[in-house]
Amino acid sequence: MSRNLELSEGEFYHIYNHGNGDRDIFLDDSDRWRFVKLLYLANSINQYHFSDVSFGEEFDIDREELVTFIGAYCLMDNHYHLLVKEKEAGGISKFIQKLSTGYTMYFNIKYQKRGSLFEGRFRARHLDDDPYLKYIFSYIHLNPVKMIDKSWKENGLKNLSKTQKFLEGYKFSSYLDYLGKNRTVNKILNKEEFPEYFINDGEIREEMLDWLEYDFPRGSTSGR
Asked: Which GO molecular function, any one, fits this protein according to its record (predicted)?
Protein backbone atom coordinates (compact mmCIF):
# COMPACT_ATOMS: atom_id res chain seq x y z
CA MET A 1 0.00 0.00 0.00
CA SER A 2 1.70 3.13 -1.21
CA ARG A 3 2.14 6.55 0.35
CA ASN A 4 3.29 7.91 -3.01
CA LEU A 5 0.60 6.51 -5.29
CA GLU A 6 -0.43 8.96 -7.99
CA LEU A 7 -4.16 9.60 -7.62
CA SER A 8 -6.16 9.90 -10.84
CA GLU A 9 -9.42 11.75 -11.45
CA GLY A 10 -12.50 9.56 -11.48
CA GLU A 11 -10.75 6.64 -9.76
CA PHE A 12 -11.61 5.01 -6.42
CA TYR A 13 -9.21 4.65 -3.49
CA HIS A 14 -9.02 3.07 -0.07
CA ILE A 15 -7.39 5.64 2.23
CA TYR A 16 -6.26 5.01 5.78
CA ASN A 17 -3.82 6.19 8.39
CA HIS A 18 -2.71 5.13 11.87
CA GLY A 19 -1.70 7.07 14.91
CA ASN A 20 2.02 7.82 15.16
CA GLY A 21 3.67 4.80 16.75
CA ASP A 22 0.28 3.06 16.57
CA ARG A 23 -1.01 5.29 19.37
CA ASP A 24 -4.73 5.77 19.85
CA ILE A 25 -6.05 8.82 18.04
CA PHE A 26 -9.59 8.65 19.43
CA LEU A 27 -9.72 8.55 23.23
CA ASP A 28 -13.43 9.16 23.73
CA ASP A 29 -16.64 9.69 21.78
CA SER A 30 -16.19 13.46 21.68
CA ASP A 31 -12.97 12.87 19.73
CA ARG A 32 -14.77 10.58 17.34
CA TRP A 33 -17.59 13.05 16.78
CA ARG A 34 -15.05 15.80 16.14
CA PHE A 35 -13.42 13.71 13.41
CA VAL A 36 -16.79 12.78 11.90
CA LYS A 37 -17.77 16.44 11.72
CA LEU A 38 -14.42 17.22 10.09
CA LEU A 39 -15.13 14.61 7.43
CA TYR A 40 -17.97 16.89 6.37
CA LEU A 41 -16.41 20.32 6.94
CA ALA A 42 -12.98 19.53 5.46
CA ASN A 43 -14.54 18.35 2.21
CA SER A 44 -14.94 21.80 0.68
CA ILE A 45 -13.00 24.37 -1.29
CA ASN A 46 -13.73 26.69 1.64
CA GLN A 47 -12.06 26.79 5.03
CA TYR A 48 -14.26 26.42 8.11
CA HIS A 49 -13.38 26.81 11.78
CA PHE A 50 -15.43 25.29 14.57
CA SER A 51 -15.40 28.63 16.37
CA ASP A 52 -17.41 30.06 13.48
CA VAL A 53 -19.98 27.24 13.40
CA SER A 54 -22.78 26.96 15.93
CA PHE A 55 -22.81 23.71 17.91
CA GLY A 56 -25.17 21.20 16.33
CA GLU A 57 -25.23 23.03 13.01
CA GLU A 58 -22.01 21.63 11.53
CA PHE A 59 -23.89 19.59 8.93
CA ASP A 60 -26.05 22.54 7.89
CA ILE A 61 -23.10 24.42 6.40
CA ASP A 62 -23.34 25.00 2.65
CA ARG A 63 -19.95 23.75 1.48
CA GLU A 64 -20.46 25.13 -2.05
CA GLU A 65 -17.99 22.88 -3.88
CA LEU A 66 -16.50 19.59 -2.70
CA VAL A 67 -12.87 18.59 -3.21
CA THR A 68 -13.48 14.82 -3.15
CA PHE A 69 -16.27 12.25 -2.97
CA ILE A 70 -16.71 10.02 0.09
CA GLY A 71 -18.35 6.61 -0.20
CA ALA A 72 -17.63 5.02 3.17
CA TYR A 73 -15.71 5.57 6.39
CA CYS A 74 -14.92 3.89 9.69
CA LEU A 75 -13.13 5.07 12.82
CA MET A 76 -11.13 2.65 14.97
CA ASP A 77 -9.24 3.51 18.16
CA ASN A 78 -5.86 4.01 16.49
CA HIS A 79 -6.70 4.46 12.81
CA TYR A 80 -9.38 5.32 10.28
CA HIS A 81 -10.53 4.05 6.89
CA LEU A 82 -12.06 5.97 4.00
CA LEU A 83 -13.42 4.95 0.61
CA VAL A 84 -13.07 7.95 -1.69
CA LYS A 85 -13.19 8.98 -5.33
CA GLU A 86 -10.82 11.53 -6.80
CA LYS A 87 -13.04 14.39 -7.99
CA GLU A 88 -10.28 16.62 -9.29
CA ALA A 89 -6.49 16.53 -9.38
CA GLY A 90 -5.15 16.82 -5.85
CA GLY A 91 -8.61 16.76 -4.28
CA ILE A 92 -8.06 13.77 -2.00
CA SER A 93 -4.70 15.12 -0.82
CA LYS A 94 -6.22 18.53 -0.03
CA PHE A 95 -9.06 16.91 1.88
CA ILE A 96 -6.81 14.65 3.96
CA GLN A 97 -4.44 17.53 4.71
CA LYS A 98 -7.31 19.66 6.04
CA LEU A 99 -8.79 16.72 7.92
CA SER A 100 -5.49 15.67 9.53
CA THR A 101 -4.35 19.19 10.39
CA GLY A 102 -7.69 20.16 11.88
CA TYR A 103 -7.97 17.04 13.98
CA THR A 104 -4.34 17.10 15.13
CA MET A 105 -4.70 20.70 16.33
CA TYR A 106 -7.85 19.77 18.24
CA PHE A 107 -6.24 16.65 19.77
CA ASN A 108 -3.00 18.34 20.81
CA ILE A 109 -4.81 21.24 22.47
CA LYS A 110 -7.28 18.98 24.28
CA TYR A 111 -4.66 16.55 25.57
CA GLN A 112 -1.74 19.00 25.86
CA LYS A 113 0.36 17.12 23.31
CA ARG A 114 2.83 18.28 20.70
CA GLY A 115 4.01 17.04 17.34
CA SER A 116 2.56 14.67 14.78
CA LEU A 117 -0.50 12.65 15.66
CA PHE A 118 -0.61 10.55 12.51
CA GLU A 119 1.92 8.13 11.08
CA GLY A 120 3.19 10.29 8.25
CA ARG A 121 1.29 10.86 5.04
CA PHE A 122 -1.87 8.85 4.47
CA ARG A 123 -1.74 5.51 2.72
CA ALA A 124 -3.73 4.85 -0.44
CA ARG A 125 -4.63 1.77 -2.44
CA HIS A 126 -6.13 2.03 -5.92
CA LEU A 127 -9.37 0.10 -6.23
CA ASP A 128 -8.88 -0.76 -9.86
CA ASP A 129 -11.68 -3.25 -10.46
CA ASP A 130 -15.28 -3.66 -9.38
CA PRO A 131 -14.95 -6.79 -7.19
CA TYR A 132 -12.08 -5.17 -5.30
CA LEU A 133 -14.08 -1.97 -4.75
CA LYS A 134 -17.05 -3.95 -3.44
CA TYR A 135 -14.79 -5.97 -1.15
CA ILE A 136 -13.23 -2.83 0.36
CA PHE A 137 -16.69 -1.42 0.97
CA SER A 138 -17.43 -4.47 3.12
CA TYR A 139 -13.94 -4.56 4.64
CA ILE A 140 -14.24 -0.98 5.91
CA HIS A 141 -17.65 -1.59 7.49
CA LEU A 142 -16.53 -4.86 9.11
CA ASN A 143 -13.50 -3.30 10.82
CA PRO A 144 -15.31 -2.64 14.14
CA VAL A 145 -15.79 -6.40 14.61
CA LYS A 146 -12.18 -6.46 15.84
CA MET A 147 -13.25 -4.33 18.81
CA ILE A 148 -15.24 -7.21 20.28
CA ASP A 149 -13.62 -10.24 18.60
CA LYS A 150 -10.04 -9.42 17.72
CA SER A 151 -9.14 -12.69 15.99
CA TRP A 152 -12.44 -13.40 14.27
CA LYS A 153 -10.88 -13.83 10.84
CA GLU A 154 -8.27 -16.30 12.10
CA ASN A 155 -10.48 -18.28 14.47
CA GLY A 156 -14.04 -17.63 13.33
CA LEU A 157 -16.71 -15.57 15.05
CA LYS A 158 -17.51 -16.31 18.67
CA ASN A 159 -21.08 -15.00 18.49
CA LEU A 160 -22.73 -14.05 15.19
CA SER A 161 -25.87 -12.39 16.57
CA LYS A 162 -23.84 -10.34 19.08
CA THR A 163 -21.53 -9.21 16.28
CA GLN A 164 -24.38 -8.18 14.00
CA LYS A 165 -26.01 -6.24 16.84
CA PHE A 166 -22.71 -4.52 17.62
CA LEU A 167 -22.16 -3.47 14.00
CA GLU A 168 -25.66 -2.01 13.76
CA GLY A 169 -25.08 -0.06 16.96
CA TYR A 170 -21.64 1.30 16.08
CA LYS A 171 -22.12 5.00 15.35
CA PHE A 172 -18.72 5.88 13.95
CA SER A 173 -18.90 4.31 10.52
CA SER A 174 -21.12 4.81 7.49
CA TYR A 175 -22.69 1.35 7.80
CA LEU A 176 -25.82 2.75 9.48
CA ASP A 177 -26.27 5.22 6.62
CA TYR A 178 -26.38 2.34 4.15
CA LEU A 179 -28.94 0.61 6.36
CA GLY A 180 -31.19 3.61 5.80
CA LYS A 181 -30.90 5.11 9.27
CA ASN A 182 -31.96 8.75 9.39
CA ARG A 183 -28.84 10.55 10.64
CA THR A 184 -27.53 14.05 9.98
CA VAL A 185 -24.08 12.54 9.38
CA ASN A 186 -25.31 10.85 6.21
CA LYS A 187 -24.59 14.19 4.54
CA ILE A 188 -20.92 13.17 4.63
CA LEU A 189 -21.52 10.59 1.93
CA ASN A 190 -21.75 11.15 -1.81
CA LYS A 191 -23.45 7.87 -2.64
CA GLU A 192 -24.42 8.95 -6.15
CA GLU A 193 -20.72 8.89 -7.12
CA PHE A 194 -20.27 5.21 -6.21
CA PRO A 195 -21.67 1.98 -7.66
CA GLU A 196 -25.05 1.00 -6.21
CA TYR A 197 -24.20 -2.48 -5.01
CA PHE A 198 -27.11 -2.79 -2.61
CA ILE A 199 -30.68 -1.79 -3.46
CA ASN A 200 -31.92 -2.02 0.12
CA ASP A 201 -30.81 -2.65 3.70
CA GLY A 202 -31.61 -6.36 3.38
CA GLU A 203 -29.03 -6.78 0.63
CA ILE A 204 -26.25 -5.05 2.52
CA ARG A 205 -27.03 -7.07 5.66
CA GLU A 206 -26.79 -10.22 3.56
CA GLU A 207 -23.42 -9.10 2.17
CA MET A 208 -22.08 -8.46 5.68
CA LEU A 209 -23.39 -11.84 6.85
CA ASP A 210 -21.63 -13.60 3.97
CA TRP A 211 -18.32 -12.07 5.03
CA LEU A 212 -18.89 -12.73 8.73
CA GLU A 213 -19.48 -16.40 7.94
CA TYR A 214 -16.67 -16.63 5.38
CA ASP A 215 -13.95 -19.15 6.19
CA PHE A 216 -10.84 -16.99 5.86
CA PRO A 217 -7.54 -18.82 5.27
CA ARG A 218 -5.72 -19.25 8.56
CA GLY A 219 -3.30 -16.39 9.14
CA SER A 220 -5.31 -14.03 6.95
CA THR A 221 -6.03 -10.64 8.50
CA SER A 222 -6.92 -8.45 5.53
CA GLY A 223 -6.06 -7.77 1.96
CA ARG A 224 -7.19 -8.42 -1.51
From this structure: transposase activity
CATH code for the domain of 82: 3.30.70.1290
Can you give the three-state secondary structure of the chain, one letter per residue? Answer: CECCCCCCCCCEEEEEEEEHHHCCCCCCHHHHHHHHHHHHHCCCCCCCCHHHCCCCCHHHCCCCCCCCEEEEEEECCCEEEEEEECCCCCHHHHHHHHHHHHHHHHHHHHHCCCCCCECCCCEEEECCCHHHHHHHHHHHHHCCHHHHCCCHHHHCCCCHHHHHHHHCCCCCECHHHHCCCCCHHHHHCCHHHCCCCCCCHHHHHHHHHHHHCCCCCCCCCCCC
pTM: 0.93
Which tens digit of pLDDT belongs to each residue from 122-140?
A: 999 999 999 999 999 999 9
Q: How many domains does the chain have?
A: 1
Residue 204: which domain range?
A: 12-212
- The 10s digit of each residue's pLDDT in 66-100 is 999 999 999 999 999 999 999 999 999 999 999 99
In a domain, 220, yes or no: no
